């Protein structure tokens, strides 16, 4: 999708001609509901709306979290009442709130708090990784590793598996969770600690989640602070919405619980779109997967568009789509998810997985399920290879493509790696992102009736000589639902205050 956009060289001309066109354009946008005063008004800005009928504006008025006026600084005064909060943008540049669709927030807040263990490690390799880490970090009270392949303990009894970890340490708890999150491998110290907690709490059967909480390898206050710091980091880049493209479920659950607390405290700085992530070879328990999806959606249905979870995230490789039993279960799962109205995000790791994903989508569309969205994240070369496969022959309704999300977690700009102009960058972060998430009627552009989310920049984005320089652009302010949630000047003052308060005089 590509809306009209101004380039750096013609922006001046637009500014000169804007006054001549302003009267006709803004009569239509400001004619109705002039008796309604706004909660907040932002005036005297260069507002890039992503709306073809009014590409640029000077002012917006917001009420009840939505835009009620988009137009010029003179007309907006009609919406200013005694209780209206007014912000003078002083000529700064405003973009629709940026939507990050390559986000790994839940993974990032745990960075350095767990020991990554590769699925390719054998038994001795896993024990070696844990031993080395514990030797280098003796101060920790508990050790948690994530990602091992469960087959290495498949033939062991619980006692035998625990004894293997006892050889690494008997003094402190060790927990290892496999990549599928259905096998928790612990030493006897961790087991005894969890059993003692369960006995005290009257728990007869311990879940993985309970076990993790009982042994407590994480500091809850540290995690809460990390979420807040990360939210400020996203705000400084202009992000007002994030889509978490996948993380271990327990990390997602912890992250979402912290967000729920922030929502209740009215301190959220981004809207959150969550997902349930499954690897292709872990879709055997279909009923369990659908139950989790339904629960996640149900728990977020009344949160004022701030926290959502309506997306099934799958990571597929050749081995997943070529083994017939797995392929059949995948299609069944995708069909049921589509029937229930869930959107689907697929990371296709190779060409075979990409082709299979498109064939699944075609089968689902042919079955009559056409309203849910599919996002296919993959290497762009997969889409170019034909080998008898033609995208034009497939059902492409509500199907969107983007670069692979299997990047480093901190790479928040992966979605625009293929962009060739600043206009394409902005499309990726606004209208295209909103459409792929099925929220184009609420976000992605600055229009009357849409949610009042936007970002304010000192520098002109269209003056950038290279589109990739956009990642260096810092926001002065971000606004969600018409309320300022981030102000760079205030953030800097707070950082200075915290620094000075920590200095021992």
UniProtKB/TrEMBL annotation:
Matching Pfam families: Amidohydro_3 (PF07969)
Transmembrane segments annotated in the record for this chain: none
Superkingdom of the source species: Bacteria
InterPro entries recorded: Amidohydro_3, Metal-dep_hydrolase_composite
Domain Amidohydrolase residue range list: 86-367, 405-486
A single GO molecular function term of this UniProt record: hydrolase activity, acting on carbon-nitrogen (but not peptide) bonds
Alphabetized PANTHER family for the sequence: IMIDAZOLONEPROPIONASE (PTHR22642), PROTEIN LONG AFTER FAR-RED 3 (PTHR22642:SF2)
Official protein name in the record: Amidohydrolase 3 domain-containing protein
Annotated organism of origin: Aminipila luticellarii
Lineage, highest ranks first: Bacteria, Bacillati, Bacillota, Clostridia, Peptostreptococcales
